[in-house]
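S.,

Sequence below, as promised.
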Amino acid sequence: MQQAVIFVRVSKKEQDYQRQVEDLRAVAQSQAVQVVAEIAEKISGAKRNQDREGIQQLLELSRRGAIQKVLVSEVSCLGHSTVEVLQIVEELTQLSVSIYVQNFGIETLKNGKRNPVAQFMFTLLAEFARLERETLRERILSGMDEARRQGVTIGRPVGAKEDKAV
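The prediction came back faster than expected:
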């Protein structure tokens, strides 16, 4: 039986990843794989993979040979940029760790061999995720610029201090 990791990410602290975990547990059961770890991150997708504890933990398990499969809901969980996603895919593929992406039902390795269609799809999906983030960023900045033109104050009120609660 293959050993797998469920890997989930949400980008805001107030978001919940439990639905992703439950869905991926069902995938694991349907594929008859044993889940040996669940890694969940509440971290912005804009963070670099080198700064993401969850990604580092995933890579460590892979390098030790502790897993053969990673289950994710979508490609964007794996990295900030197309390059980062493709680097993760390549490293895991070299380590014979397959990545299964639930929302498209694609897997990087089939019977231990590269799945060229999945590799192509990863490239496209990672680029679409990057484009979506960039478009959202531009919309937010444009909205803030328009608000400033209309006299709206952006940010904390004058004199407010940052709350450094632990």
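The longest helix spans residues 116-149.

Coffee later?
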